[in-house]
Design goal:
Helix content is 22%, strand content 31%. It is an alpha+beta fold and 445 residues long. β16 and β17 form a beta hairpin.
Length: 445
């Protein structure tokens, strides 16, 4: 009996444990169902409307002088004096003496030539007297009629007059040579390069230095084929009036960093190259900046000088586009797409055809551009925008009236048995819509 009990009792215990486990498994509490929260992204948006947009063409180029001159003496001699302005970087005005060549030889030549002029005057006077005397002698001989030129010594008189004129012309040349011993500035400018100094002997072919005019400077700017369609360039065909009013020339704003600050200058496009550059396949235009040193402008003393050789950025004022949609560059995705938000706050990817774009803006035409007036365009970049996804847009700074849509996050439930217990937060009704305690109180009342 004891043996049978020892065998049966463990089997009964095992059977009871298995039965109890099966009962617990069969009667386990069902998990409480909660509504799936709706994922909504808050975005910035704008309602587009037609407006005007001023096109500015971005380009850049180097500053160069309008006029550059190589100074060469017209006479030979030793340099005896050099002006303080005749140093690299020196400024000078038109007519200023830059350097002086020893004038002694030319002063001596003038004295000698004056003697030659006096001699020619004497010879001419003698010939006139001889001619008059020859006519008197011809009459005394009883000749009748008009005496010939040979009798009146007209050839000798003409020769004497010619020699006098030649002597006077030579004297004038010697005087000009004396004046040319002082090399004077042909215009108001600045010395770029100095090649000679005091004591050096120079001839008519010696390069004294190089200078440039400072009344204007020029900047040669490249424009692409796309940019050329948005600016009116000053070009006049043959036979047309080439005089173009200054106000009609396209404005250019130049900018360059000078130390820690940025300086700007204003100019205008004055001419256009005759052909497309074969290397860059671009058309070069020339902009002119008046008073590059800012000495005669309203901001005299406040503007940095525009140096020769400086590399500057330029914005050429182009055409004014009327009735277009202007979007920030960040609002247009790669591939030319924008995200449009409908009245139900659902998004839609829309292909657009820009007419102009720059570093900051994209311009969409009003017709055939893919957008219409009143469309709401998302400005916030979205990584993976899916058509039909919900968003919470803030349109032109106006926040939405409803910040949490239906089916939002439910409250935290407490401990409960089958079917769950009471939660501390909101409770979902049969339709799966979450209700706050305030809404339930309103329903009861």
């Amino acid at each position: 009996m004891k043996l049978a009990l020892r065998i049966v009792l463990p089997l009964l215990i095992v059977w009871g444990a298995v039965s109890l486990a099966q009962w617990f498994i069969a009667n386990k509490p069902k998990p409480r169902k909660r509504p799936t929260p709706v994922q909504v992204t808050s975005v910035e948006a704008t309602r587009i409307k037609p407006e005007s947009f001023q096109v500015h063409l971005d380009t850049r180029g180097g500053v160069r002088p309008r006029t550059t001159t190589t100074l060469i003496p017209e006479v030979s001699g030793r340099i005896t004096e050099i002006s303080a302005s005749f140093r690299e970087g020196g400024f000078f005005e038109k007519g200023d003496m830059l350097l002086k060549i020893d004038p002694v030889d030319y002063e001596t030549a003038i004295v000698i030539q004056k003697s030659a002029v006096a001699e020619a005057n004497r010879v001419l006077s003698e010939e006139k007297a001889r001619g008059e005397q020859a006519v008197e002698n011809w009459k005394r001989l009883g000749k009748r009629g008009i005496p010939s030129d040979m009798v009146k010594r007209m050839p000798q008189l003409a020769e004497a007059e010619a020699r006098l004129k030649a002597a006077e012309a030579e004297l004038e040349k010697r005087q000009k040579d004396l004046e040319r011993t002082e090399v004077k500035a042909p215009y108001a400018g600045r010395l770029l390069e100095q090649n000679v100094d005091v004591g050096q002997y120079v001839t008519t072919g010696t390069q004294l230095g190089r200078a440039f005019a400072i009344d204007f400077v020029e900047v040669r700017l490249p424009l692409s084929n796309q940019q050329l369609g948005f600016v009116d360039l000053p070009e006049a065909y043959r036979g047309e009036n080439e005089t173009i009013a200054k106000q009609e020339l396209p404005e250019v704003l130049f900018e360059a960093d000078m130390g820690s600050t940025s300086t700007t200058w204003k100019g205008r496009i004055v001419r256009v190259d005759s052909a497309i550059d074969q290397m860059s396949r671009q058309l070069f235009v020339v902009a002119q900046v008046e008073d590059p040193y800012g000495k005669h402008s309203e901001i005299a003393g406040k503007q940095q000088p525009l140096k020769i050789g400086m590399f500057v950025s330029a914005k050429v004022k182009g055409k004014l586009l009327e009735g277009v949609f202007v979007l920030p560059r960040a609002a247009v995705r790669a591939g030319g797409e924008v995200i449009v938000i409908n009245s139900e706050n659902k998004i839609r990817r829309q292909k657009v055809e820009p007419v102009w774009s720059d570093r900051d803006n994209v311009v969409i035409p009003r017709t055939d551009g893919g957008l219409a007036a009143g469309d709401i365009v998302c400005l916030t970049p979205l990584a993976f925008p899916a058509n039909g996804a919900s968003v919470l847009p803030t349109i032109d700074g106006v926040a939405p009236t409803v910040e949490t849509p239906a089916g939002g996050f439910p409250g935290k439930g407490g401990k409960g048995g089958k079917g769950g217990g009471k939660g501390k937060g909101s409770k979902a009704d049969k339709s799966g819509v979450t209700q706050s305690p305030a809404e339930k109180t309103a329903e009861k009342s």
